[in-house]
TrEMBL record:
Protein name (record): DUF3575 domain-containing protein
InterPro entries in the record: DUF3575 (IPR021958)
Lineage: superkingdom: Bacteria
Signal peptide: 1-18
Alphabetic keyword roster: Signal
């Protein structure tokens, strides 16, 4: 009888152990910063991190645009888009010290590859360069595509056995392609109106901002160990 119970229990024990081991290697996260991204566009962005071993992991992330803070009076393109990235990480201090057990706070460095795609309706106020007494409001469509890489620096903080916080920053480069639809503003003949940084931010929606540019990002993820 004991032998029979042993034969029956052992497979289930190995199965449960394997399941626990597998689950402890996964972290599901919500990118809280992307919910309120006013620089590009907001997305509901979810990521999953898989620990390969105590020192290395892979984090994959996908976000979809469900809303837009910009509500123009005249719609040319309905706001929609997505963001996705793939990141390889090394938990640096654990690796340098050959430490297996995690501390409450673990610093990591990663290489992130990303791709983004979005379209929306934008507007700007402008006047002809030869007659600034005339002012116009131009509504136009903007299609954006961007791909690139970031060197990521972050800290994975264990609030409890299950909950983690993950602040991060990233530096890199991206190739940005912008296409404008039904735009009347002409860079050669017109000037963008607005005080302070308004013209600068308005140009980010224009084709003239296409090309290779420096990229900076920062944010906070909230995670749950499965």
């Amino acid at each position: 009888m004991k032998k029979l119970l042993t034969i029956l229990i052992l497979p289930f024990s190995f199965l449960i152990f394997a399941q626990e081991s597998k689950e402890s290697n996964w972290i599901l996260k919500l990118n809280a910063t992307q919910l309120v991204d006013v620089v590009s566009y907001p997305t509901l962005q979810i990521s999953a991190e898989r620990k390969i071993n105590p020192y290395f992991s892979v984090n994959t992330e996908f976000g979809y645009q469900l809303y837009d803070f910009n509500q123009p009076d005249h719609i040319i393109l309905k706001s929609k888009g997505f963001k996705t990235n793939l990141e390889g990480r090394v938990y640096l201090f654990k690796f340098m010290n050959s430490r297996i057990e995690s501390k409450r706070s673990e610093f990591y460095v990663g290489l992130q590859l990303f791709y983004r795609e979005n379209e929306s309706t934008n507007s700007l106020d402008y006047s002809p360069k030869d007659d600034d007494s005339k002012q116009y409001t131009d509504y136009f469509g903007t299609e954006r595509k961007a791909k690139g890489f970031n060197i990521m620096f972050g800290n994975q903080i264990s609030v409890s056995k299950k909950i983690i916080l993950e602040p991060y920053i990233g530096l890199g480069m991206m190739d940005r392609k912008i296409n404008n639809i039904d735009i009347e503003y002409n860079k050669t003949n017109d000037q963008i109106l607005g005080s302070d940084t308004v013209p600068l931010f308005k140009r980010l929606d224009l084709e003239e901002s296409s090309g290779n540019v420096f990229n900076f990002c920062f944010g906070l993820r909230i995670g749950y160990r499965l």
